[in-house]
Amino acid sequence: MLSTSEQWGELYTPKGAPYGSMHQTQCKEQFSLAFTHAITAAARCKVSDLRVDDECVDFTVRQVANHRRHSSSVLDVQMKCTEQDVLKDDGVHWQLDRDHYDALRDPRAYNRKILVVLLVPHLLQSWLEMREDGMLLRKAAYWVCLEGAEPIKTQSKTVILPRVNVFNVEQLLEILQRVGDGGRP
Q: What pTM was computed for the model?
């Protein structure tokens, strides 16, 4: 594992130009949003960025399409981004504090919610690769719906985002279809 200074210290390009000084948490937030924008744009949907995160929701994905029940789908997303080694054989093991867990499991919420965890490489410079034939965003994101999950008595809970739940265009469209048909994500 790299130290914080190795990973986030003052960095320079091969030609000596310095990187900016944005804090690592803000870099992760911005990269998560860019990752989500890329997926939703490819799915022909839109993202509404929320300015205040008081409902454990970072943004909302909206889709206009003809589903069995509704003419549009709305999905609230709580997004996390990490370089930690949290991907195991069964999925991403992510620790949520009780407030976030309770907000994500609330079956009375008007909009359906999912938790998405984006995994990025340890080195910031490896998150994005530009080539003549395209741009590569690294690595992958996984999702889970906790709606209706059992309450907890502890201050936190480790949830597992299954490896098969990859947050990509195809699965986002399937989630939105289930929501538009009146179901759970």
A: 0.90
> Average of pLDDT values for 45-74?
86
Nearest Cα to Cα of residue 74 among 157, 178, 176: 176
What is the 3 state secondary structure string of the chain? CCCHHHHHCCCECCCCCECCCCCHHHHHHHHHHHHHHHHHHHCCCEEEECCCCCCCCCEEEEEECCCCCCCEEEEEEEEEEECCCCEECCEEEEEEEHHHHHHHHCCCCCCEEEEEEEECCCCHHHCEEEECCEEEECCEEEEECCCCCCCCCCCEEEEEEECCCECCHHHHHHHHHHHHCCCCC
